[in-house]
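Ticket reopened. Same input as before:
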Amino acid sequence: EGWELAEQANRIRRKFTFPDFRTALTFVNHVGELAEEMGHHPEISFGWGHASVEIWTHKIGGLHENDFVLAARIDTLPET
Amino acid sequence: EGWELAEQANRIRRKFTFPDFRTALTFVNHVGELAEEMGHHPEISFGWGHASVEIWTHKIGGLHENDFVLAARIDTLPET
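Engineering reply: fixed in the latest deploy. New output:
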């Protein structure tokens, strides 16, 4: 649970589970709106009952403070 | 371009490009609505300016006619 370092520690990733596809899609939309609001966009993968969010700063190919701000804000989103 | 076989030929995948994050998110929502309508759900990955859709039938761990129907319907979605 929570955020883990991924890909040689230059990005963070968190996996989420959901009861069905619809709630995963809704969560993905919340993450998408947050990303647009912040002007900082993660990679999002999802399917039936699950989603994964990866965050890093493309310009530096690694992690920057903004990445952790986005992660913390994603943590506040409803998962159902 | 178009659908390619992936993962030992037991799934198909197509990559899409977009001018920004918002249009990728909109496309993902169209795919999601189509998936809910068909009761057949792909794996979707996306980020700023791109999306990837993978389709297979979980029950058989491979490809079934429904997978190609979903792929063909995704091909009719607007990409902008």
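Residues 4-75 of chain A form a domain with the Gyrase A; domain 2 fold (CATH 3.30.1360.20). Chain A touches chain B through 16 residues (CB under 8 Å). Please confirm and we'll close it.
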